[in-house]
């Protein structure tokens, strides 16, 4: 694995990770260590119904300030602003997000509005903040998003029907409590979808133009772990060891892509998510092999490494053959864990592909794709192949 002589990058991953079965019991100590005393749980109705918010409420004890449970599948600016007002009314001084990516991203936005005032819209974009924000402890209930360790928050603009983002060192969560008992009840289709989101994070960290050795090492390790343990999490969801390994792999992939950014796969997944409500991980999963084949001419050597990490014997293969084998292996993995293979299966209309392709060109992730995207027609071809 080689790098250009002009390699230059920043690596900043300050989130303290606390991993282990029943590690949520340490939340109180972590809140104390951050100098806070009143934690507001940020979550959604499904997590409340599953009893997971209550588990966290119990361990918070006297530090519990209340629960904001209005988060939705796609976070929204209006929800962030509403949640921040609720948190201030409850006099919370720290947020404890309990959920998947949308919940975590909602809390990241709330942390900003609580500190800076105004509306989150005022701070969307890149590095708009200049000081630490409201402290934030994350308890993920999916193993995929990686948002517990990243500087990104994807927030949907419901008025314009597009996904906007915040990219800022000051929204990186302070603590990530990775407790396998909090993901053990995740149903197979959500385990698979969110798991493939993490898998696509690892692949995009490796092929992005921003790739660098720290992230490469982590992403390859995350791939090794996910190939082994993601299918086992589907087969035996209650197994806390398997769940913990996938949870760690997702966080490792999150740290990797959190320092490198993404590529065409996330650009395209964001757009079909915004236009047709395709769940983020499922969109990434369907598109990934097609994007790998699109990129093959630019980074076959990197995909050959991914093939090796996936356990394929690539000794007698050229980089191109190994890269193709890696894309095939991704398909096999997604079939094995029961995910849909085509965009038509998840409600994307054929006549909507052109609009999604146009929209993709405006997504920030596309800039870092290893193969330069020359226009909407090229993206449309990839969408069509995946349709
Ligand atoms: Fe993602």
Question: Can you tell me about this structure?
Answer:
The chain has 387 residues and is α/β, with parallel strands linked by helices. It folds into 2 domains: 16-182, Rossmann fold (3-Layer(aba) Sandwich), CATH 3.40.50.1970; 188-386, Up-down Bundle (Dehydroquinate synthase-like, alpha domain), CATH 1.20.1090. The chain has 13 helices and 9 strands. It has helices at 27-33, 45-49, 52-60, 77-89, 101-116, 188-207, 213-235, 240-260, 264-276, 280-309, 319-336, 353-360, 376-386, and strands spanning 16-19, 39-42, 64-68, 94-99, 125-126, 136-140, 152-157, 162-167, 175-178. The protein has a 6-stranded parallel sheet with strand order 1-9-6-4-2-3, with helices on both faces. A 3-stranded mixed sheet has the order 5-8-7. Strand 7 and strand 8 form a beta hairpin. Helix 10 packs across helix 11. The model has no long low-confidence stretch (mean pLDDT 96). Fe (ii) ion binds at residues 197, 201, 266, 280, 284.
Write the H/E string, N to C.
EHEHHEHEHEEEEEHHHHHHHH
End-to-end span in angstroms? 34 Å
Helix content: 40-55%
Average per-residue pLDDT, rounded, comes to: 96
Low-confidence sequence ranges: none
- Main sheet characteristics: 6 strands, parallel
- What is the helix tally? 13
Number of domains: 2
């Amino acid at each position: 694995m080689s790098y250009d002589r002009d390699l230059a990058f920043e690596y900043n991953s300050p989130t303290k990770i606390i991993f282990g079965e029943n590690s949520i019991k340490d939340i109180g100590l972590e809140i104390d260590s951050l100098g806070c005393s009143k934690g507001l749980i940020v979550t959604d109705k499904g997590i409340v119904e599953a009893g997971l918010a209550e588990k966290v409420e119990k361990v918070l004890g006297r530090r519990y300030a209340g629960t904001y449970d209005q988060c939705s599948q796609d976070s929204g600016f209006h929800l962030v602003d509403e949640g921040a007002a609720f948190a201030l009314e409850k006099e919370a001084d720290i947020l404890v997000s309990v959920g998947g990516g949308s919940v975590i991203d909602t809390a990241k936005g709330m942390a900003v509005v609580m500190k800076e005032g105004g509306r989150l819209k005022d701070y969307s974009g890149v590095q708009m903040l200049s000081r630490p924000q409201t402290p934030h402890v994350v308890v993920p209930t999916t193993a995929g998003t990686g948002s517990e360790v990243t500087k990104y928050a994807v927030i949907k603009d419901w008025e314009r029907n597009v996904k906007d983002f915040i990219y800022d060192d000051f929204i990186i969560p302070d603590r990530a409590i990775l407790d396998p008992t909090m993901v053990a009840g995740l149903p197979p289709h959500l385990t698979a979808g969110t798991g493939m989101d993490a898998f696509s994070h690892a692949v995009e960290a490796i092929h992005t133009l921003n790739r660098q050795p720290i992230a490469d090492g982590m992403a390859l390790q995350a791939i090794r772990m996910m190939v082994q343990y993601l299918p086992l999490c589907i087969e035996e969801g209650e197994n806390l060891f398997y769940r913990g390994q996938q949870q760690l792999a997702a966080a490792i992939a999150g740290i990797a892509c959190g320092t490198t950014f993404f590529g065409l796969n996330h650009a395209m997944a964001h757009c079909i998510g915004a236009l047709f409500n395709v769940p983020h991980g499922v969109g990434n999963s369907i598109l990934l092999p097609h994007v790998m084949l699109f990129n093959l001419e630019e980074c076959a050597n990197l995909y050959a490494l991914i093939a090796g990490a996936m356990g394929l014997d690539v000794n007698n293969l050229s980089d191109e053959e190994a890269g193709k084998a890696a894309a095939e292996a991704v398909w096999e993995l997604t079939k094995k864990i029961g995910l849909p293979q085509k965009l038509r299966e998840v409600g994307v209309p054929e006549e909507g592909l052109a609009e999604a392709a146009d929209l993709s060109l405006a997504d920030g992730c596309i800039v870092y794709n290893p193969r330069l995207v020359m226009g909407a027609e090229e993206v449309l071809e990839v969408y069509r192949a995946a349709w």
